[in-house]
Specification:
The complex is a heterodimer. Chain A is mainly alpha-helical. Chain A is built from one helix and no strands. Helix content of chain A is about 70%, strand content about 0%. Chain A is rod-shaped, with a radius of gyration of 17 Å. Helices cover about 80% and strands about 0% of the residues of chain B. In chain B, helix 1 crosses helix 8. The radius of gyration of chain B is 22 Å and the shape is globular. The termini of chain B are far apart. Classes of the chains: A mainly alpha, B mainly alpha. Chains A and B meet through helix 1 of A and helix 5, helix 9 and helix 12 of B.
Chain lengths: ~45, ~475
């Protein structure tokens, strides 16, 4: 059974991992910024 | 305008920009900290994109395309591991801690960090020797790859291509130091991105889109669109791990973390590095598509250069070639500055401290001059070897990355996360990791597993066991490294 764009689902999952990683980076960046604001962190 | 004239015009413009940037950055380089880590003043955009440019060399682009050609779309998992483990997690796990530790320990190289964190001059010298020897070998592979591509795309002799590319890099690195490396890498990352997108879109248009590409690949061999497909799990996972987890022990990439101007750089930087790293998808996917358009290639390494000739017009081909050169040059330059640091900072030792002399403008100028001469010497050594590479060197290039990562990965990671890790543990771990990685590859990769996997596993086990069996590190040293007691 094929997934989107003719990929097998097992291969298409690799593209989902890439998209998920971008999301992870954004969430981490936002959470780090919020934590630094709370603690006065983010050394200069 | 002939094809050769178009290629030469684009190449000349590209070289002028690089040399101008080298001269410009040379004026901003006043002391050793400027020369080796840009005075710890690099912002998020330059840090992130120079990281990506140093990560993906021309060998990755051409070699990635060759893997795509041979194994099909399952190679997209290698790209996924590049993005997740090699970019995002490396930034999240190591970025802040390496910045803080290297600042507290006042060091600007990875061997220097290992020496000061573990209080072991032996560990520092051993890691510096590994970095010096295998980074030069790695650089030879980058130069050879770049020379072969220029030969294939432009038809200029290999030796001319190697000398031209090598000398240009030597000029801007020895003049501008790390600042020239990161700023040229920043520009080069965008040229790489543009070139790769250009080739991918042209190739997709030629085969009728992504869905049509997958259908045509499945018709050639169903294993070209499934995972692990024709590659098999052991080959796919060990290769994916070495080119992603290996990053965590590679000095030319880790230096990006401690050259940042503050840990705030990490917030935007991690997002940018992840987005830039996602371009790893393109060479693998494009290589797979080339299997449809060039089904009878005898050498898969030619998949990307031949595809570029087939689907791009001369201007597009010239831009793509500049992109491939950019990938090679940015990696070569990044490695050069690391080798220079290994010679002048780690193997030579800190001369000023030993003789108790006060620092001043004169010693700053001398440090920069020594750095320039060392980077020039390291580059010339690489250039001479790459000019006519002996067979043995070409064999070793296949596992230079694996040996460096096996030796340095755990000493760096545990060095910033585990207080109990000590000098005896780290020295034993580096020796064991190096010997096992090398031995495994010389034995012909038993079970189809790359030497990096057993090398890095043994290195971890030895570091933990030997550290626990020997006395803990000096409490004052740990307090300093962890910043305990700081106001």
């Amino acid at each position: 059974m094929t997934g989107p764009f003719g990929f097998s689902w097992g291969t298409f999952a690799a593209l989902l991992v890439v998209a998920g990683t971008v999301l992870l980076a954004i969430v981490w960046a936002v959470m780090t910024a919020m934590r630094d604001d709370d603690t006065g962190g983010g050394d200069e | 305008m002939s094809n050769m004239a178009v290629y030469s015009t684009v190449l000349a413009a590209y070289i002028v920009v690089l040399v101008a940037m080298g001269i410009l950055m040379g004026r901003r380089t006043r002391n050793a900290e400027d020369f080796y880590i840009g005075g710890r003043q690099i912002g998020p955009w330059v840090t992130a994109f120079s990281f990506v440019a140093a990560y993906f060399s021309s060998v990755v682009i051409v070699g990635g395309g060759a893997f795509g050609y041979r194994f099909g779309m399952s190679t997209l998992w290698v790209a996924a591991s590049n993005v997740l483990i090699g970019c995002t997690l490396a930034w999240i796990v190591l970025g802040r801690r390496l910045w803080e530790f290297t600042k507290r320990l006042d060091t600007m190289t990875i061997p220097g960090f290992i020496g000061k964190r573990y209080g072991s001059r032996e560990a520092e010298v051993f890691s510096a020797i590994i970095v010096f020897v295998f980074m030069i070998v790695y650089n030879v592979s980058v130069l050879v790859g770049m020379g072969r591509i220029m030969e294939g795309l432009m038809g200029i002799p290999y030796t001319t291509a190697v000398i031209v590319a090598g000398l240009i890099i030597l000029i801007y690195v020895s003049i501008g130091g790390y600042l020239a490396v990161v700023w040229t890498s920043f520009v080069q990352a965008w040229i790489m991105l543009f070139g790769l997108f250009l080739l991918a879109f042209a190739a997709l248009a030629r085969v009728g889109g992504l869905t049509a590409a997958n259908i045509q690949l499945a018709a050639i061999d169903p294993g070209l669109v499934t995972t692990p497909g024709v590659w098999g799990w052991s080959g796919l996972t060990s290769y994916a791990l070495i080119v992603s987890l290996g990053v965590w022990g590679m000095p030319q990439l880790l230096v990006r973390f401690y050259s940042m101007k503050s840990t705030r750089v990490l917030r935007l930087g991690v997002v940018l590095a992840t987005l830039g790293g996602a371009m790893a998808i393109l060479p693998y996917m494009t290589g797979a598509i080339s299997r449809i358009l060039l089904p009878t290639l005898e050498n898969p390494d030619l998949a990307i250069p031949k595809l570029a000739q087939l689907v791009l017009n001369p201007w597009g081909g010239a831009i793509f070639m500049a992109g491939v050169m950019a990938a090679g040059m940015s990696t070569f330059a990044s490695v050069l500055i690391i080798v220079s640091g290994a010679i002048t900072r780690d193997l030579r030792g800190n001369q000023e401290d030993r003789k108790g002399r006060k620092r001043g403008p004169q010693s700053d100028r001398r440090d920069v001059m020594i750095g320039r001469v060392a980077s020039l010497a390291a580059g010339l050594i690489s250039l001479v070897i790459a000019y006519r590479p002996p067979g043995l060197v070409l064999v070793i290039t296949a596992f230079a990355w694996a040996v460096i990562a096996s030796a340095c990965l755990w000493p760096v990671v545990l060095g910033v996360y585990w207080k109990r890790a000590n000098g005896a543990g780290v020295l034993s771990s580096m020796i064991a990791g190096t010997v096992v990685a090398l031995g495994w590859m010389i034995a012909g990769k038993p079970f189809g597993i790359h030497g990096f996997i057993p090398g890095v596993f043994i290195s971890l086990v030895v570091l933990i066991v030997v550290s626990l069996m020997t006395p803990p590190p000096d409490a004052a040293l740990i307090s300093r490294a962890w910043g305990e007691g700081e106001v």
